[in-house]
Design goal:
about 130 residues; 3 helices; Rossmann fold; single chain; alpha/beta
């Protein structure tokens, strides 16, 4: 069985999509290869997102990327993770089944506990979502 590819897509690509990418690559790499991108990349990965991942043993460096970088990649699944339509969740025009699962943006509060809560929510929800995409 080949490894499937998933893209986590949001606006800034600095927190939620980065955490999802890191969690999948650290925990589910036998079956999934994860990528992340944004429509308006922040240009950095939020330090508290990296710290929240480090707390659970995941070393993630990441790079804030523009979604256009992946237009030619055939993904099996594209998951948007923006928490509301007001955040301008991007529309993916490339290949791949599309799903939406919102998570609140911890960068809005900049509170480490919010980064932990979102990390934990992603760690719980994303493996369940991916397990249904066999």
């Amino acid at each position: 069985m080949s490894v499937k590819k998933v893209l986590f897509l949001c606006t800034g690509n600095s927190c939620r999509s980065q955490m999802a990418e890191a969690l999948v690559n650290a925990r589910l790499s036998a079956t999934w290869e994860a990528f992340s991108a944004g429509t308006k990349p922040a240009g950095y990965v939020h330090a508290k997102a990296i710290a929240a991942l480090a707390e659970i043993g995941i070393a993630h460096q990441g790079r804030s990327k523009l979604a256009d970088e992946f237009k030619a990649v055939d993904f099996d699944l594209v998951v948007t993770v923006c928490d509301s339509a007001a955040e301008e969740c991007p529309l993916w025009l490339g290949k791949g089944k599309r799903l939406h699962h919102s998570f609140p943006d911890p960068a809005k509060t900049d509170d480490m506990n919010d980064f932990r809560a979102v990390r934990d929510a992603i760690e719980q929800a994303i493996p369940q979502i991916l397990s249904t995409q066999v």
